[in-house]
Amino acid sequence: MTARASMFSLIVQVRRLIHDNGTTTVWSDEELQDWLDAHRIEVIRAPLQYARTVVGGQVVIRDYATELSNWEGDATLTDADGNTLAPETANLVVGRWSFTAHQQPPVHLTGRSYDVYAAAADALEARAAQFALAYDFTADGASYHRSQQAQALLALAKQYRRRSRPRVARMVRDDVSAQG
Fold this sequence. Notes:
Helices cover 28% and strands 27% of the residues. It has helices spanning 8-18, 29-37, 116-130, 148-163, and strands at 40-47, 49-55, 58-65, 76-78, 84-85, 89-91, 96-98, 108-114, 136-139, 142-145. Strand 2 and strand 3 form a beta hairpin. Helix 2 packs across helix 3 (116-130). The radius of gyration is 23 Å and the shape is extended. It starts with 7 loop residues before the first helix and ends in a 17-residue tail after the last helix. The relative contact order is 0.16.
């Protein structure tokens, strides 16, 4: 299975974060796509926020945005009737779209947003696991500390987890009775 073409820029972004962008890579595009897919949010016809600007005394709406970032390349915008819209510019990294002319709201977004930092942390933790059994040794008066690789990878993964999207979990206590 090959990675989806619409994932190219996201995969490049994760490769940059984990420093896996040389001529020989540690992870395949498909593996990185799998980690990205584990941290995606699917959005169907979500209304976008818009900004009003005044041009020649007229209120014009050209710019639309969403709170989520890092969108897959196949995200689509539609108008109130479900017609597909073609924005002049699209910044999928920050989630902003612009039109050349006034675009009457509402504009809806359908697509997938990804947490590149969580995916990068997953990849770094998997790489650290490959070094988990590395050993330190001394030869010819020199010390070699191979175990430091795993520690450094885990430290960077921890840093990326802090930058990843917050997660919310619903907890239910079953040790107390409901009050009526």
